[in-house]
Write a structure and sequence with these properties.
By secondary structure, the chain is of the alpha+beta class. Helix content is 15%, strand content 34%. 45% of the residues are buried.
Length: 287
């Protein structure tokens, strides 16, 4: 099942995209217990939502609604850095025994079909195609063996980065959190449709040109390792997001360098999930 968050006539909701431009509004059926997708996951209602969606006769059109980031209000967004060998090599870094982790904030995210925003402070806006996992069942000190049971689903992610702000100090936070630079969507494919350890192919295209390509078996720190490591130092909660790392080919390390600019279209495709597509525009700053 493909789950989305969206707005219709200014009202936030969530639903199941069942294809052919059809969406089942799940908030209409489960809103008393689960007012948003995060709470649907927390209440362990995904299976019931799937049953409802399969029997529903009432649909919205995907083309009529405004998508939101898959989880608009995650409690925590953990991002894994330097998690593919080619990317480690192109940055001149070294593989670390533990995952490199930084955080994103909700306001840095943008939905599928919406523009990623280039700020006036810097034009070094880079793409980073990634796979995001959404936590279903929370926990502390989750073992690698049990980690797959804690995943609600998977989505595409573009960890858009303002490179000079990222490297201005030893901390990456500012360059990874400019407003509306991180694409998250178009939907979450529920974990029952993607087998544990299934090898997924990730491709990033900029204006149709392939810039990054890798498979998940190339990760240095596997998804189970990421879940186990993060849950050691903080409890994971339903709706939390882990962005699992980008492969080599980022624009900042190309010769010549390639940065995203207004009018560009960037696509993150994961074969088991779909395609996240965003345009690029400049931020409008009041005089």
């Amino acid at each position: 099942m493909k789950l989305i968050s969206f707005e219709l006539n200014g009202n936030a909701s969530y639903g199941a995209f069942i294809g052919n431009d059809q969406v089942v509004d799940l908030k209409a059926a489960f809103g008393d217990k689960a007012p948003d997708l995060k709470s649907l996951i927390a209440q362990d209602l995904i299976a019931k939502a799937a049953e409802h969606a399969s029997q529903s006769k009432e649909f919205l059109k995907l083309s009529d609604i405004d998508l939101l980031p898959v989880i608009p209000n995650p409690g925590q967004i953990f991002c894994i850095g330097l998690n593919y060998g080619e990317h480690v090599r192109e940055t001149g870094k070294e593989i670390t025994e533990s995952p490199v982790i930084f955080m994103r904030v909700n306001e840095s995210q943008v939905a599928h079909g919406k523009d990623i925003v280039r700020p006036p402070e810097s034009h070094r806006l880079d793409y980073e195609g990634e796979i995001a996992i959404v936590i279903g069942k929370g926990g502390r000190r989750i073992s690698e063996a049990d980690s797959w049971e804690h995943i609600a689903g998977y989505a595409c992610y573009n960890d858009g980065s303002i490179r000079d702000w990222q490297v201005a100090t030893s901390q990456w936070g500012p360059g990874k959190n400019f407003w509306r630079t991180g694409g998250f969507g178009p939907w979450m494919v529920t974990a029952d449709e993607i087998a544990a350890s299934q090898n997924m192919r990730l491709t990033t295209r900029l204006n149709g040109q392939v810039m990054q390509e890798a498979t998940t078996d190339m990760m240095i720190h596997s998804i189970p390792r990421q879940i186990a490591y993060i849950s050691t130092f903080i409890p994971l909660q339903p709706g939390d997001v882990i962005v699992t790392g980008t492969p080599g080919g980022v624009g900042n390390k190309r010769v010549p360098q390639v940065f995203m600019k207004p009018g560009d279209v960037v696509e993150i495709e994961v074969d088991a999930i779909g395609v996240l597509r965003n345009g690029i525009r400049d931020e409008v700053v009041a005089a």
